[in-house]
Amino acid sequence: MSILTEILFLYVSVVYFKKKERLLKQNYKGKKIPCGIGIVLGFVLTFYTFFIYCYVSKINFLVIGLSFLAISAVGFIDDIFGDNKSKGFKGHIKRLLKEHELSTGLLKMIVIPFVLFAGSLYLTEDILKTVLYTVFGSLSVNLFNLFDLRPGRCIKALFVFLVLFGFFINWSPFYISLLILLVPIFIGDIKEVYMLGDAGSNLIGYIFFVIISKLYNISVNNVVIWIALFVVAALNLASEYISFSEVIEKNKILKYIDGLGRKN
């Protein structure tokens, strides 16, 4: 039922934004299409997770549901009101100090770590785990936001990472359901019907974090989470010096995977 609801909401949202000419932004080809449609996925995942919480009464699902909503919503605010006047943490801080403007990018950098910190602390009551989850989750959200530069790339990156870590993941029905719910929005994204925007790419990063951290239950001594944290941190750092798009274009395998299903 959730996937049918998602398809309906996607269709209605795209038709509405195109008809009213709202939230239309140029993609990498210069084509104007609706942006921020990831908010639809945000609502679908939120309601789906709340439904599970009502059924099994496990607080983990309530925390994850609220996090889905908050992380997607703050990304949607950035999709609507964001601009390119400042980039990166330093750029947003300088803008705040010099121009006395709170950019939507800085708002996102504040809200997302706070959501992760509050949820982790409530569930674990362990400051070490809380700090670890906050750093890992924040870096994951930012990383997948960086991948969202070409149609379908962000969700493809998630699938690639999950394949690499798949052997170490305990694939619960909830994880599989999350990935299934990504299929409809992935199809529209890769076909250039709309763009995920920060509202969607933020969610993809959070989904990666949730699956790797096993609903916040994994031990901080588990080597997998430390490897994942190292990889995510390294890629975030690398993004400051290299272009992921250029790296993908120069690598035949990555270029092939990146181009699968995309319009020429």
Automatic annotation (TrEMBL):
<feature type="transmembrane region" description="Helical">
    <location>
        <begin position="33"/>
        <end position="53"/>
    </location>
</feature>
<feature type="transmembrane region" description="Helical">
    <location>
        <begin position="224"/>
        <end position="244"/>
    </location>
</feature>
<keyword id="KW-0472">Membrane</keyword>
<keyword id="KW-1133">Transmembrane helix</keyword>
<feature type="transmembrane region" description="Helical">
    <location>
        <begin position="59"/>
        <end position="81"/>
    </location>
</feature>
<feature type="transmembrane region" description="Helical">
    <location>
        <begin position="102"/>
        <end position="124"/>
    </location>
</feature>
<keyword id="KW-0812">Transmembrane</keyword>
<feature type="transmembrane region" description="Helical">
    <location>
        <begin position="159"/>
        <end position="187"/>
    </location>
</feature>
<feature type="transmembrane region" description="Helical">
    <location>
        <begin position="193"/>
        <end position="212"/>
    </location>
</feature>
<protein>
    <recommendedName>
        <fullName>UDP-N-acetylmuramyl pentapeptide phosphotransferase</fullName>
    </recommendedName>
</protein>
